[in-house]
Specification:
Elements: H1 3-9, H2 23-34, E1 46-50, H3 53-60, E2 75-81, H4 89-106, E3 110-115, H5 127-135, E4 142-150
Antiparallel strand pairs: 1-2, 2-4, 3-4
Length: about 170
């Protein structure tokens, strides 16, 4: 598949089949993330691979809204990075996450991003606190997101060129 077609085809999937993702596919997804560009090639992010159903459910419950789809995912990857290691921790982690999502799409595996760094529960507990407790993540690691992966149980149409907002592209000046 050409990259232009891959970009058009990749959509977020929040419903997955029960089919497990084999180890070779997981390795390719992680390899893509490990190859993602970073500021000064520091590669300071960490990827926590979660396949345990109970732990994935706890990740889904780390915030009140926007992560419940994880409960149906056979695989989750938590992306963390320490701002002590790079001031580009958020950008570098985001690039790695999206790179993994494109690799998954090429393999026929759906994905969706659950943003976790600034949201939480109605009692004031922030999602990263919950996730740290579930996965023993050190305090110096900021949790950016949890990616849910699985074989899509829903059909998503590719993005349409008709919906591109070319008016938001500016040449030379705003």
């Amino acid at each position: 598949m050409d990259f232009k077609d891959l970009v058009q085809k990749r959509r977020s999937h929040r419903k997955f089949t029960a089919q497990e993702i084999d180890g070779d596919a997981v390795r390719l997804i992680l390899r893509a993330g490990l190859m993602a560009p970073t500021g000064k090639s520091c590669r300071a992010w960490h990827f926590i691979v979660v396949e345990d159903k109970t732990d994935i459910e706890k990740l889904a419950d780390a915030k009140d809204a926007g992560a419940q789809f994880l409960k149906g995912a056979p695989l989750a990857v938590v992306i963390t990075c320490s701002p002590d290691d790079t001031d580009c921790w958020m950008e570098d982690s985001s690039i790695a996450a999206v790179t993994m999502q494109y690799q998954a799409e090429e393999l026929g595996i759906g994905s969706c991003w659950a943003q976790m760094d600034r949201r939480g529960l109605s009692d004031g507990t922030m999602a990263p606190e919950v996730i740290r407790g579930v996965l023993d993540i050190p305090e110096n690691q900021n949790v950016l997101c949890v990616l849910g992966f699985g074989y899509p149980a829903d059909e998503r149409k590719p993005q349409s060129d008709d919906n591109l907002k070319w008016e938001n592209v500016h040449i030379g000046k705003f």
